[in-house]
Amino acid sequence: MATARRKRVLILGGGFGGLYTALQLEKELARNNDADVTLVNRENFFLFTPMLHEVAASDLDLTHIVNPIRKMLRLVKFFDGDVESVNLQNRTVTVSHGLEHHHHVLEYDHLVIALGSITNFYNLPGLQSHALTMKSLGDAIELRNRLIEHLEEADFECSAGVRDQLLTVVVAGGGFAGVETVAGVNDFLREALPFYPHLSEENLRVVLVHSGPVILPELGEKLGGYAQKKLAQRKVEILIDTRVKRASELGVELGDGTLIPTRTLVWAAGTSPNPLLETLPCKKDRGRIIVNEAMEVAEWPGVWALGDCAQVPDGKAGKYYPPTAQHALREGKVLAQNIVADIRGDRKRPFVFSALGQLAAIGRRTGVANILGFQFSGFIAWWLWRSIYLSKLPRLEKKVRVALDWTLDLIFSKDLVQFMTVRSASVSHTPETGTTSSAEESGVRDGVAALS
Ligand SMILES: Cc1cc2nc3c(=O)[nH]c(=O)nc-3n(C[C@H](O)[C@H](O)[C@H](O)COP(=O)(O)OP(=O)(O)OC[C@H]3O[C@@H](n4cnc5c(N)ncnc54)[C@H](O)[C@@H]3O)c2cc1C
What's the mean pLDDT in 395-413? Predict the structure, then answer.
C-alpha cells in the first residue's frame, strides 16, 4: 500500500506572525512528525520590534533584541533569503539568496503569508531620500549612528553655522513607534551633551510632529495628554494637528509652510502592506489579504495569511483585528493548529482574542499603560513596560543580556560608540618594481556604511 506524501508547509516571513506559526508547528510536529515545514526570511534573525527604540537611543546593545532563527527552531527548516514571487496556481514560491541572488523554486501544500508591512511615505516630496525609518534593526543602528555623527561634527568650531541644524531632530508620527523614538532620542542627546564641550542644551531641538490633536491616540486622551506633558517638560517640542509637507537637505517643511532646519527626520507616520501582496490574486482590503476566521484565504484553500499583511475578522467587534505584535504572535499559534487540523482532517478553529492592553515607554523611567481597562502612568507604567516586554522577549540568553544592559544603565552613562562597517587601511606592495598602490588607488576606498 502506497504511503501518503508528507505535506509541505511553507512559511513566508520570520516576524511575529511567521515565527510563532513555526514555533507552534514545532510543538505539533514533536508529537506527530507528519509534515515538512520551511520558514523563509530575509534576515537570519527574529527582531523584537517593541524594543527597537532602545537600540536607537543606545539603551540596549545592538544584537540583544534579535534572536537567530536557527537557534529557535529544530524541526522546521530555515531558508535565509528573499521571497521574489508567489504562484498560487502552481503552488510554488520563487526565492533568492547568495551574493548573486540565484533563484530556487519551493513547492508547497500549505502556504503561510506573514510578510508584514513596509514604511509608507505617501509620495511626500523628498521623504524617500531624506527621511530615516524605524522598522528594522538597520534603521535603529542608522539613527543611532546619525545622532552620534552629528554630535561629533557639531562639536567643532567649523560647524558653528550649521550646529543648530545638526542638532535638530524631527520625528513624524505620534503613535507608539514615533513617541517612543522621540523620547529615547531626546534622552540620549541630552545625556550625551556633557561629553561635547562646545555643545549646550540651547543647541538641541527635538520635535515631534503629529497630525492629530493628542499623541498616542490608541491609549486615549488622558494618557496621551500625560505623555505630551511629560515630553514637553523634557523639552521635546510637540506640534499637534500638524503634517509634514516635504523634506529636503535644508530641513523639514510643515503643512503651514514653516521650515524646520534639520538633517535628521525620522518618519514613523505610516505603513502599508508588503508590496509583494499586490501581485497575488486574492481579495484584499486596504492592501491586506482578507482571510476567514481560521486565517485561511477562502478562494485559495491551503493558503493562509496573518499579522500586518492580513485582515483577520474579529467576529465579536464586527471589524478586523489591529496590526500589532500581540495579535500576530497569537494568530500564529492558532494558524499552526489549523494547518495541523487540516492535515489530520480535524476541525479548524476561529481566532478569537481580546487585547490585554497597550503600553508605551516615554523615557526617563516614565511610561503610560492601559491594561485590561486600568490606566497607569509614570514609574509604575514604565516598570510594567519593562517587565512585560522582557518576559515576551524570546530566549533566556537575550532576556539576561537585556536585563544586564538595563542594570548597568543604572551605573554607567549611555554608550557613544558609532557602529560602523569600516574597511581598515591597506596597501599593495609590488616587490619587483618597489611601487606601492594604496587601497584608494586600486579602487577600494575606506568607507563608512551604515547597515540597512
Ligand atoms: C518600532 C516598532 C515598534 C513596535 N512596537 C510594538 C509594540 O510595542 N507592541 C505591539 O504589539 N506591536 C508593536 N509593533 C508592531 C509589530 O512589530 C507588528 O505588528 C508585528 O511585527 C507584525 O508581525 P508580522 O509577522 O506581520 O510582520 P513582521 O514582524 O514585520 O515580520 C515580517 C517578516 O517578513 C520578512 N520579509 C518581508 N518581506 C520579505 C521578503 N520579500 N522575503 C523574505 N522575507 C521578507 C521581514 O524581514 C520580517 O522578518 C511595533 C512596530 C515597530 C516598527
Answer: 96
Task: Supply the pTM of this predicted model.
Answer: 0.93
Residue 239 contacts residue 207 (beta carbons within 8 Å): yes
For the CA of 308, the nearest atom of ligand 1? 26
Higher-confidence residue: 85 or 436?
A: 85
Per-residue pLDDT at 139 exceeds 90: yes
- The 357-361 sheet, strands edge to edge: 357-361, 367-371, 374-378
User: What is the amino acid identity at position 110?
Assistant: H
Q: Please choose, from the candidates 156, 188, 193, the residue with its C-alpha nearest in 3D space to the C-alpha of residue 171.
A: 188
Q: Are 23 and 72 in contact (CB under 8 A)?
A: yes
Percent above pLDDT 70 for the chain: 94
Q: Is the CB of 175 under 6 A from ligand 1?
A: no
Strand 264-267 to 168-172 pairing: parallel
Render pLDDT for 214-256 as a digit per residue (tens, 0 to 9): 999 999 999 999 999 999 999 999 999 999 999 999 999 999 9
**Ligand 1 contact, 135 CB (< 6 A):** yes
* Residues shown for the chain: 452
Q: Is the CB of 127 under 6 A from ligand 1?
A: no
Instruction: Give the residue, out of 11, 19, 49, 66, with the most ligand 1 atoms within 8 A of its beta carbon, to mutate for a pocket test.
Output: 49
Distance, CA of 339 to CA of 342 (rounded, Å): 5
| Between residues 418 and 234, the one the model is more confident about | 234
